[in-house]
Write a structure and sequence with these properties.
This protein has 103 residues and is α+β, with helices and mostly antiparallel strands. Helices cover 64% and strands 16% of the residues. Strands 1-2 form a two-stranded antiparallel sheet. Helix 1 crosses helix 2.
Length: 103
Amino acid sequence: MSEEKIVSVQILNRDYRVKCQLEQQAELKEAANYINEKMSQLKLQSSNNAPDQIAVITALNICNDWLKLKKQYKQQVETTNSQVNKLTQRVEKALGKKVDSFV
């Protein structure tokens, strides 16, 4: 079992102490830095300085970006699978026998 550690991160000049697995420390700090950057940008662009609203809007923006990437990834996987199937059919036709599929 992995060792846990308390990690301090700062978001919008507020300190947060978060317990995480030792091997996930770098990812946690990277995530906190990313959130801090996005919230700071939004705070500069917005007339609203309420931290809770900035946090919610930032979360919605990040989630929207993630959903777009997820959709793009799914489309890319489908395209790749289709191309692999077409190539497999061409190879089977050229060899005159069935080839085990990788997908």
